[in-house]
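Reading a protein record of the kind used here takes little practice once its layout is understood. An example of such a record is reproduced below.
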Amino acid sequence: MSDRSKPERPAETPKRGEAAWRAARDEIASRNEAASRKARARRQAKYDEESARRAAADRRERAELAKRMP
């Protein structure tokens, strides 16, 4: 009797020629896309932080001006 709980997959043959080139190209493209998403998220976080800092400074300045006005 054979064990049917774990079907065996045949070993994947290495890609050759154009298939190998396409696989490498697709892998590079996916890494580049992931890096771009990460950099975009980092820039957005920095922009959000800077905007929050400016808004807080603006609120402090307005509060200070409001105290000076009679």
About this structure: DSSP finds one helix and no strands in the chain. The chain has a mean pLDDT of 90. The longest helix spans residues 17-68. Residues 41-70 form one domain.
